[in-house]
Amino acid sequence: MSFQSFNPPRRILMGPGPSDISPQVLSSLSRPIVGHLDPLFIGMMDEVKALLQYAFQTKNEFTIALSAPGSAGMEACFVNLVEPGDKVIVCRNGVFGDRMVQNVIRVDAEPIIVDTTWGRAVEIDKVEQALIDNPDAKFVAFVHAETATGAVSDAKTLCALAHKHDCLSIVDAVTSLGGIELRVDEWGIDAIYSGSQKCLSCVPGLSPLSFSEKAVSVIKNRKTLVQSWFLDQSLVMSYWSGEGKRSYHHTAPVNSLYALHESLLHLHNEGLENSWDRHKAQHEDLARGLEKLGIKFIVPKEERLPQLNAIYIPDGVDDVKVRNYLLNHYNLEIGAGLGDFAGKAWRIGLMGYAARSENVALCLTALEDALNQ
Ligand SMILES: *Cc1c(COP(=O)(O)O)cnc(C)c1O
């Protein structure tokens, strides 16, 4: 058997992530490696932290990039904050809300599940009722941007509700960060995690994470040890925040962090609000084009995510054939349906660097061609 270097074609990624990566971010990966405790690298990590604080709109001292994908960010929130026996209200309106439930179960805590129909925003009234029925609940957990369905939930109201009932909020912002309005401090988010490969348009494998002071004090006052050594954030805190005492915890993914720094720099240079506006404008163009093709959205207009467009596959159209056609003829990837929507929906991502006019135009042309074939 003979092996060769792997040289993939240049695809255009318009699925649920990973998203397109700009040439500048990609090339930052090939800069010379330095030691992860090199003073120059530590200086860059200080900037990563400051840029993440900007992206999250937070002053949280504990704001880091976890060396693992978004799923690990989710797990880090649950294993660090939640102790066995705690009651956690979990809002479930798609695949990722259900993963939160699985996390709660695995830390031996008690999930109080608030179900909302897939494709809709989390129902505030139901969450309030769950809080009234469970005065001993300690956390409210929800997904801001449900990538499985393309629905956005009202994070600001949900966090206010959690605080009114003395609960901390745990928020999944994997798909929302950089793509839609998100204000960690103003909205009172206590624990939040994201992913590098969605609207930040960086390589997969890093999870931005931020904890409020209240969340940090919950972690510091735990009665039990965090089950996971690697995800125990009390062990990592000194690396990220101790003045000059960067001690070894694990080897940081050095070059991936160059790419995160570069992508956060682009977001900062563009301006967060400009990025939100760009995602919205590109989404509106795409939606107009899709409607012309007779394609219907799953989510009602006011609850739609601009960066994740979930649409019904037209009757009689072969899901896999169309997606393969786009890949083979246009080097274009769109996402398949997930969970309840498998085989019934496509998910067109307009995330980060992918949210550009030429991509919208290409996607509409390619889709029209594929449907005509
Ligand atoms: C992609 C995604 C995750 C998981 O992130 P990975 O990097 O794939 O582990 C979690 N939550 C949401 C909402 C996502 O879209």
Count of helical segments?
13
Percent of sequence in beta strands: 15-25%
At CATH level 2, the architecture of the largest domain is: 3-Layer(aba) Sandwich
Main sheet attributes: strand count, strand direction, barrel closure: 7 strands, mixed
Structural class by helix and strand composition: alpha/beta
Q: What is the strand tally? A: 13
CATH class of the largest domain: Alpha Beta
Number of domains: 2
Radius of gyration: 21 Å
Overall shape = globular
- Binned, the helix content reads 40-55%
Describe the model:
With 373 residues, the protein is of the alpha/beta class. It folds into 2 domains: 12-18 and 272-372, Aspartate Aminotransferase, domain 1, CATH 3.90.1150.10; 24-268, Aspartate Aminotransferase, domain 2 (3-Layer(aba) Sandwich). Helices cover 40% and strands 15% of the residues. The chain contains 13 helices and 13 strands. The chain has helices at 23-28, 39-56, 70-81, 95-106, 124-133, 155-164, 184-187, 213-220, 237-241, 254-270, 272-292, 319-330, 357-372; strands spanning 12-14, 62-66, 87-92, 110-115, 139-143, 145-146, 151-152, 168-172, 191-193, 207-211, 308-312, 332-336, 345-349. A 7-stranded mixed β-sheet has the order 2-10-9-8-5-3-4, with helices on both faces. It has a 4-stranded mixed β-sheet with strand order 1-12-13-11. Helix 7 (184-187) links the parallel strand 8 and strand 9. Helix 5 (124-133) packs parallel to helix 6, helix 11 runs parallel beside helix 13 (357-372) and helix 12 (319-330) crosses helix 13 (357-372). The longest helix has 21 residues, at 272-292. The radius of gyration is 21 Å and the shape is globular. The mean pLDDT is 96. InterPro entries: Aminotrans_V_dom (IPR000192), Aminotrans_V_PyrdxlP_BS (IPR020578), PyrdxlP-dep_Trfase (IPR015424), PyrdxlP-dep_Trfase_major (IPR015421), PyrdxlP-dep_Trfase_small (IPR015422), SP_NH2Trfase/AEP_transaminase (IPR024169). Residues 40-337 form the Aminotransferase class V domain. The modification N6-(pyridoxal phosphate)lysine is found at residue 198. Substrate binds at residue 347. It is an enzyme of class 2 (transferase).
